[in-house]
Design a protein that fits this description.
The protein is of the alpha+beta class. The protein has a single domain, classed as Nucleoside diphosphate kinase-like domain (Alpha-Beta Plaits). It contains seven helices and four strands; from the N terminus they run βααβααβααβα. Pfam families: NDK (PF00334).
């Protein structure tokens, strides 16, 4: 069954020159395609909506500040089991716990700056795509 998911290549991925490597890994997966892709600096209002469930937690303000710190590649990826597939490709948030071969396992350095966001469910993907690409909802 085809799905859509939102993927963010965070400011650390852009700053470190890893966009091509990460996008290439996504493109090489059979039956997945990138159907929208933009490079933009995210504003606080968008980030507050995106990370709203974390407001008040100790990591919230540093996370929003990090995400405002530079350009982010924002994309929609479509394909078979793409929600769970991109999350597996990304690996766990903690780069030490992430397996070699995953994006975070190969390139991650610290938990807070973890290179990539991938929607955690089809419902989250729909909400996030509408937030970042209002015309594609």
């Amino acid at each position: 069954m085809s799905q859509r998911t939102l993927v963010l290549l965070k400011p650390d991925a852009v700053r470190r020159g890893l966009m091509g490597e990460i996008i290439g890994r996504i493109e090489r997966k059979a039956n997945w395609s990138i159907t929208a892709l933009e490079l933009r600096t995210l504003d606080r209002a968008t980030l507050e909506q995106h990370y709203g469930e974390h407001e008040g937690k100790p990591f919230y303000e540093p996370l929003v500040a990090f995400m405002e710190s530079g350009p982010t590649a924002v994309m929609v990826v479509e394909g078979e089991r793409v929600v769970e597939g991109v999350r597996a490709l990304a690996g766990p948030t903690d780069p030490i716990a992430a397996a070699p071969g995953s994006i975070r396992g190969d390139f991650g350095t610290i938990v807070r700056e973890n290179l990539v966001h991938a929607s955690d469910s089809a419902e989250s993907a729909d909400r996030e795509i509408k937030l970042f690409f209002p015309g594609r909802g």
